[in-house]
Amino acid sequence: MLKFYDNLTVINLDVNGELRSVTVRPSDILLDVLREQLGLTGAKPGCKNGDCGTCTVLLDGMPVKSCLTLAIETIGHKILTIEGLGGMGSHTQIQEAFVEYNAFQCGYCTSGFLMVCHALINNKPEADEYEIEKWLESNICRCTSYQEIRSAVESVLKNQPKYV
Question: Which InterPro entries match (predicted)?
Fold first, then answer.
């Protein structure tokens, strides 16, 4: 339901499994709404033009750049941020793998990479080296932890139970 107040709109967003009301302008991006109104600061502002991936969140289980997504576009969709990974199936595995393989240095890009990796593991459990590479190229690590990130993802995928 939309309620308009002097160019502001009250909308309900499903964020991390919880329905949250926010007041937005039609031009407000999801990144700013998450950080400024909901206090969810795990998605980071980087380039703010969709190149770096530090702002990556999941929308209905798929990675999106929250700096390119209008908040009003997410009405009726499920938004998952890094803060919402608690209690999700593969979150501890991928987070533990990042630690085990030293898949971060400064950490600024880590939340975005974790979201992409979480989506990859859930959507492509049989991913091969090429698919892993394609998924990971949506994000940039300026500290060059790419091989470590790839190794962490491969370790989790290798240890996933296979269902027939």
Answer: 2Fe-2S-bd, 2Fe-2S-bd_dom_sf, 2Fe-2S_ferredoxin-like_sf, 2Fe-2S_ferredoxin-type, 2Fe2S_fd_BS, Beta-grasp_dom_sf, Diverse_Oxidoreductases
How many Å apart are CA 34 and CA 115, to the nearest integer?
Answer: 15
Report the distance separating Cα 78 and Cα 104, nearest Å.
Answer: 27
Q: Does the structural domain 3-85 have CATH classification 3.30.565.10?
A: no
List, for residues 59-74, the tens digit of each pLDDT value: 999 999 999 999 999 9
Q: How many CB atoms lie within 10 A of CB 140?
A: 16
For the segment 141-161, what is each residue's pLDDT rounded down to a tens digit?
888 788 999 999 999 999 876
Domain boundaries, given as residue ranges, for the chain: 3-85, 91-158
Q: How many CB atoms lie within 10 A of CB 7?
A: 9
Q: How far is CA 72 from CA 126, 138, 153, in A?
A: 34, 23, 32
CATH number of 91-158: 1.10.150.120
CA angle at 85 for the pair 11 and 113, rounded to the nearest 5°: 100
